[in-house]
Design goal:
Radius of gyration: 22 Å
Number of domains: 3
Shape: globular
Low-confidence stretches: none
CATH class of the largest domain: Alpha Beta
Number of helices: 11
Oligomer: single chain
Strand order of the largest sheet: 3-2-1-7-19
Distance between the termini: 54 Å
Number of strands: 26
Mean pLDDT: 96
Largest sheet: 5 strands, parallel
CATH topology of the largest domain: FAD/NAD(P)-binding domain
Helix content: 10-25%
């Protein structure tokens, strides 16, 4: 019997399935997951799970009893090899599965260092899946040397965990500063200072020449000739949307699987959600890599599969835990031309594009985050001067 098939078993897929059942869909519903485990949270992998503070059963999004009670067929270890759009079937080697509607929630894959510069040496890891983190966990022994390649959030979170566990950590960032693509210099300065205070050595504006070692990595050679010793290496240089299946099926791909405002692909029977999907934004096509976006897109697809006809309205929010600092981010800072700082018990940095507030970074300041998020999502007019001088931010929401 045909029905709805979801390819991918991450946050978007789990949210989509739950929303479909909550909205009254009673037809066949199948989730095909490549990994051998049920859908789980990814953000804690590089934080609480790696630290040993969050066991596997707390990572799992829903228990096996939920899938059974809601008649959701969960197929793990499924290798989807092709989509036959004409026959409306998903191919899995010698098997195939029919669908009426198909959702692609294939996520993203971590970028790796080329083999030519040592990317395939033993002891070189990426942080994306449960298997990735399980493989590297035995490396985290006090006194060992870790080199992190990349000063984005994944690299910084891994560096923080390693430093807390007593490792010697060096982080190498090729750009002039950490978080260059995603945060203002004020936020980067605060996070850099935090890491330095905890003994992490950060080398900015420094390119990696190659990883050295015979069969296993033993160091990182920089372009200036220095070699940083390394017992193991974590590569955090971003991810790429997982689009191979969509491309092979002839779907439109543009910085991800291209969807319209209702999250439908170029095939009206196929939808996409989560890290793999790019959707129309105010400044062109955009793709968001976050839990919040995966949940919201998954739920929007579910509603539109059932005929809601809703345009997707992103409400971006992100977070990162490093040492004793919680960074919370609301909005998107693309194109900002001014940053207003508020420093108190916590810190917050408010991004403006012209007269409009577009984003806020809050460091150990949940109140600023909450108010900033509500101001941005509500489209409230607020000036940089009001943010700078307000004695009570909450008053700005009135």
């Amino acid at each position: 019997m045909s029905g709805i098939v979801i390819v991918g078993a991450g946050q978007a897929a789990a949210s989509m399935a739950a929303k479909l059942r909550a909205q009254g869909y009673v037809g066949s519903l199948t989730i095909l997951g490549e990994e051998p485990v049920a859908p789980y949270q990814r953000p804690p992998l590089s934080k609480g799970y790696l630290l040993g503070e969050m066991p596997l059963d707390r990572l799992t999004l829903r228990g096996a009893d939920w899938y059974a009670a809601n008649d959701v067929r969960l197929v793990m270890g499924a290798q989807v090899t092709a989509i036959d759009r004409a026959a409306k079937r998903v191919e899995m080697g010698d098997e195939s599965l029919p669908y009426d509607q198909l959702a692609l929630c294939t996520g993203a894959v971590p970028r790796r260092l080329p083999a030519a510069i040592g990317g395939d040496l033993a002891g070189v890891y990426t942080v994306r899946s449960l298997a990735d983190v399980d493989a590297m966990e035995p490396e985290f022994t006090a006194g060992r040397h870790l080199v992190v390649i990349g000063g984005g959030y994944i690299g910084l979170e891994a560096a923080a965990v390693a430093a807390k566990l007593g490792l010697t950590v060096t982080l190498i960032e090729a750009a002039p500063r950490i978080l260059g693509r995603v945060a203002c210099s004020e936020t980067a300065d605060a996070i850099r200072a935090l890491h330095v205070d905890h003994g992490v050595k950060i080398l900015e504006g420094m390119r990696l020449k190659r990883l050295v070692g015979e069969a296993r990595v033993s160091g990182a050679e920089l372009e200036d000739g220095r070699v940083i010793p390394a017992d193991f290496v974590i590569v955090g240089i971003g991810v790429a949307p997982s689009t191979a299946l969509a491309e092979a099926a002839g779907l439109r791909v543009e910085n991800g699987i291209a969807v319209d405002e209702q999250l439908r692909t170029s095939d009206p029977a196929i939808w996409a959600a989560g890290d793999c999907a790019s959707f129309p934004g105010p400044d062109g096509r955009m793709r968001l890599e976050s839990v919040g976006n995966a949940i919201d897109m998954g739920e929007c697809v579910a509603e539109n599969m059932l005929g809601a006809g809703k345009a997707y309205q992103p409400k971006p929010w992100f977070w990162s835990d490093q040492f004793d600092m919680k960074l919370q981010i609301a909005g998107l800072n693309a194109g900002y031309d001014r940053v207003v700082s508020r420093i108190g018990d916590g810190s917050s940095f408010w991004y403006f594009r012209g007269p409009r507030l577009i984003a806020v970074d809050a460091l150990n300041d949940p109140r600023a985050y909450m108010i900033g998020k509500r101001l941005i999502e509500g489209g409230k007019a607020v000036t940089p001067e009001e943010i700078e001088t307000a004695t009570d931010l909450k008053a700005l929401m009135k």
